[in-house]
Amino acid sequence: MRRAVVVAAMVVAACDPYVDRPPAPAHDGIHGFAGGCYVMDATPPGSSNTRWLAAYDGGDRFAFCATSDTAAARFHVRAADLGTYLFYDEEGRYLVGEDDRFQRAAELDSDILLLDDTFRSPAEWDLEVSAHDPERFQLRHHATGNYLTTSGLTDDVAEAAVVALYPATGCAEFPELTVDADGAVAPRQWPDGDVYGIVETHAHLMTNFGFGGGGIFHGAPFHRLGVEHALPSCEQFHGEEGRRDLVGYAFSGLGEVDTTSLLAVFIAAMTPEFNHHTDGYPTFTDWPNAWKTSTHQTQYYRWIERAYRGGLRLMVQHATTNSVLCELMTGLGAQQVRYACNDMVAVERIITETYNLERYIDAQAGGPGRGWFRVVKSPAEARAVINEGKLAVLLGIETSNLFDCFLTPPPGQPACDAAKVRAELDRFHALGVRAIFPVHKFDNGFGPGDGDRNVGQIGSFINSGHYSNMVTDCPAVYSVFDKGRVTFGGINMPRASYLEPAPNDMSTFAGDPIGTVAPFVGALMEPALEGDHCQNAGLTELGEILIEELMQRGMIIEVDHLPRRSYVRAYELLVANDYPPAATHGNSNGGLVYRLGGISKGGLGRCADPERPGAMGDSLRARVAEIVANGGYPAEGFGFDLNGFAGGPRPRFGPDSACGDTPQANPITYPFTSYAGDVTFTEPHLGDRTVDFNTEGMIHLGLLPELIEDARRDGVTDVELEPLFRSAEGYLRMWERAEARGAALRRATLPR
């Protein structure tokens, strides 16, 4: 510890002459340096003989040895978190504390690249007010907790150097994606006082933290070390030519390959040929592409910001993951993970990281609460955030094994009961979760999965050990997923009781997926069952308790993954309690969702009709008419389900056009202004390349402004688009109604 002081004195002595420390520069506190250009000086405690930090030892290290600020390194100070910074010099090198020295690193390791969830970068520095001088600072090494001295690191705060940051010029730009938009978002409301803006009802920002947090889904919405670590090449995870991206291959190509080919791919743990280019920042040859590749990030925070500047004001951020796909990929050796594949482990991590994204954006904006991205826990809070001109973010959960309530619990794990469900609801409500899907793809303790007929059918079989349970005697109600033929007919064996013991033991799947599934390959190869089928069971008793408890808490109940029998029963409960549902996969249930005060999701058409200007607004107009006819608030937002393996809007022009032979006109040109008129959008870029929305479509969320402008160019009027920009209000009214009904239901159950 004392060695640091002695060495510091020797360094200063070796760097004659004496240099008097300048006056402390004005500053805005520890959060006020983000994005600025500075030089740094430091003195030992009690000394005024200063030195500036500069490149040293042939440029491989930094040292406090420059005798003037003109010889000092110019640092772009980049926020990694609130009060935590990276120092990036004019040659693109980082200040790194390592081996008791100040290294000058051109590249950084990260938790992503190392697949080490405990890794903390030695390039991060926490800025604190100096223990010796209230006008200056000290730097604490984020990875070790030690303090910077003029010659190295110490664990004794009494020896921490007294540091100042002086504004400078000549810094390098820190690597980052551009927003390609000019103008500040102006807070606004509609003349009647309703909030202004679009709702995205169904988003998955953090899918990269699902699936064990490895590289099954690649790319993050942010990273503390910047875009180079948030959106790097996926080759480390998806392999050369993307051939280890088996999940992306299966979800993107299941309709184009037969069962034999798909099974062969998984046995080989590699696609048979080129799959995709792997390069990420700054070249991005093949990804992001929301409508083409399902396993790459499409909602980086700068893309979210661009959508926000185009009118997005409310977003429902659902935590999603899939333990079976995770266990499959790790069991095959095709991927590694950072933590357990368990659904709820991922859900909790995703919730944490969503708050971390809020902190990160705040850090770039200059301090707590100053960013445009705000997690909200009540409709009143959301209204306040939106009226400030910011983006309100609501937390939800969409995963199959909700609360670890398996249909067939893993060995040694008890089945869920009502007490556990109530406790978990309380716990996640305290974490900020307000929207929940009772079921997703697989059967669970609350009821059958959504009836997915493709990969989901096999996954549910593995997840529970139960054969598929599809029949042709179906309720006469529309379903988004629970319909049509049964793809894997050989594993469909309807049973009398949904809750009967599983006939197959799948507990060895995580360690040996091929060996576990091998006895059933013959059945999987059998032909599909044609005709309309549906799940043969509905909500369990525990499932009904879940619905009732969600209502008691005023939480948002997502209904569109419920299979037909569960869907019918859920609506009976909703109607009986006059409770509004959320139908964010678009099923309005014949308008009943609106009659109950709920919401669904709509969209804009992707193809113009040369004979009828404004045809791209047909679906929005039709949905608004349905809402009005059923007494609802005339507004409808989007539900893109990006990062949820659901696709995205395709282009109108070029070889990938969604419009076939129908001639298209009036492509997007630049610049154009937002619907509100406060932001001007310029040609979008992905690092080194320019994006052509006309021929590429909405490949990431940041092209939402183009999607809207495309409809305007087709002749959809601003009056016709108004329901889209009132959709945040529509969602908040549903949420307010849910909270009001929850309060009434709680009062009704109180002892009298």
Features:
752 residues, alpha+beta
Report a brief summary of the structure.
This protein is of the alpha+beta class and 752 residues long. It has 22 helices and 27 strands.
Explain how this protein is built.
There is one protein chain. By secondary structure, this protein is of the alpha+beta class. Helices cover 28% and strands 15% of the residues. The strands form eight sheets. Strands 1, 2, 3, 4, 5, 8, 9 and 12 form an eight-stranded antiparallel sheet that branches. Strands 14, 15, 16, 17, 18 and 21 form a six-stranded parallel sheet that branches. Helix 10 (379-387) packs antiparallel against helix 22 (727-749) and helix 11 (418-430) runs parallel beside helix 15. The termini are far apart.
Provide mean pLDDT, rounded. 95
Using the alpha-carbon principal axes, give the shape. globular
Contiguous runs where pLDDT drops below 50 for at least 5 residues? 1-15, 253-257
Number of strands: 27
Distance between the termini: 68 Å
Question: Per DSSP, what share of the residues sits in E-state strands of 2 or more residues?
Answer: 5-15%
Can you summarize the main beta sheet? Answer: 8 strands, antiparallel
How many distinct helices?
22
Percent helix = 25-40%
**In terms of structural class, how would the helical and strand content be classed?**
alpha+beta
Rg over CA atoms:
28 Å
